Amino acid sequence: MMKIQAQSNIPTDFGIFSMYAFSEEASDWNPHFAVVAENTDFNETVNVRFHSECITGEIFHSKKCECGQQLDAAMKFMAENGGVIIYLRQEGRNIGIINKLKAYALQEKGFDTVEANLKLGLPADGRNFDIAVEILKILKIQKINLLTNNPDKLKSLENTGIILDRRLPLEIDSNEVNESYLVKKKDYFGHLLEKV
Ligand SMILES: Nc1nc2c(ncn2[C@@H]2O[C@H](COP(=O)(O)OP(=O)(O)OP(=O)(O)O)[C@@H](O)[C@H]2O)c(=O)[nH]1
Ligand SMILES: [Zn+2]
């Protein structure tokens, strides 16, 4: 069973957060995280972001997606309003970084973000958000606002006992590279995007 393996404060440019690592085994090198802003009251409605890992976007500032900017915007929002970022080790919509780089290589040849995954024999989106729900339950969070544009994340809360108060949009302006990626998100995955 997944549980809290460790917890510590981390001072950041946005403020102080408390970082929890979750895994089944303490030896797991890729635990999921809950990153909790100061002044977050778990007994009130809690602002929450489910965020899937994106090494290219978050660490190397790739312009192919908007993940890094979304993570920064979410941290800023949580620092100002209280809340929790649940950081899921679901790199590349859960196909892993090696497969994501293979998918990017196919995208260089003209396949789009969905076609490239399918061409590799992988699902367009291999995630489910049950782990995030499990983390909310471990933290005893009952009622949330979810920062997302992704309808699947909203659906994942149905019949879980977690109450969704509001969806809070987290929309980033497109750049010259990622516009078609964002259009595909909207048209294929049904993301609630208003700027594309
Ligand atoms: N396979 C694949 N994964 C990608 C690609 N571009 C971004 N990703 C991954 O897509 C995921 C995006 O996750 P999130 O930031 O949680 O966002 P989301 O599901 O779009 O929903 P929001 O909550 O609206 O941001 C990350 O795991 C990225 O690594 C791509 O072209 N191919
Ligand atoms: Zn990304």
Task: Walk me through this protein's architecture.
This protein has 196 residues and is of the alpha/beta class. It folds into 2 domains: 3-90 and 129-171, 3-Layer(aba) Sandwich (Rossmann fold); 95-126, no CATH class. Helices cover 34% and strands 23% of the residues. The protein has a 7-stranded mixed sheet, with helices on both faces. Helix 7 (151-155) links the parallel strand 6 (143-147) and strand 7 (163-168). The N and C termini lie far apart (41 Å). The relative contact order is 0.15. The model has no long low-confidence stretch (mean pLDDT 97). Zinc ion binds next to helix 1. Guanosine-5'-triphosphate (GTP) binds next to strand 4, helix 2, helix 3, helix 4 and helix 5.
